[in-house]
Amino acid sequence: MPNKFHSSTRGLDSSTALEFVTALRTATDIRGVATAFTAYQASESVCKLFDKICLIYEGRMVYFGPSDLARQYFIHLGFEPANRQTTPDFLVAVTDPEARKVREGFENRAPRTADDFARKFLESDVATINERDMDSYRKDFIGKGDLAKAYSRQVKDEHAKTARKGSPYIVSVPMQTRAVIVRRFQILKGNIAPQAAQIL
What we know:
The protein is 54% helix and 6% strand. It is mainly alpha-helical. The chain has a domain at 143-200. A two-stranded antiparallel sheet has the order 1-2. Strand 1 and strand 2 form a beta hairpin. The chain is flat. The N and C termini lie far apart (55 Å). The relative contact order is 0.07.
């Protein structure tokens, strides 16, 4: 059966993948939104662009927390990264019984199955930090009617008066068309020499 789960960076070289993820990070920061991204193999540079990492092992969540703590978390559990192994490769290796390397002295303590990993995570300090973050979010945002009204007002204010009511787009089709035409002229103006040569 074919795998229907694809990463956005699949087929891209490492440089292009980094540019793509950097653009996502920039858009996320500018818009003030959350972005979820799936990747099987990522470089160290790509990994550093994320605030949090979620690692899934046989359908179980075995880590969800700050990206800069992930490597040390699994080292603390009893696993050893290979020489010069990147954080993403180390995390993937930890979920593979054939690839993970247990540190000396942890042979009988390191988790082995997905259930063991998930149980260890729920007992960890990282899970406690997550619980605190969720409690803080619930306290600040859940059940706050005034915030919901303010959000609705903001959405309404951002919609152009000519945009169709109920449309997810904040500008009308003519406004979008005008923006595309203007952008095209800007591209042509910025690269005028080849265009002039083609005309002549």
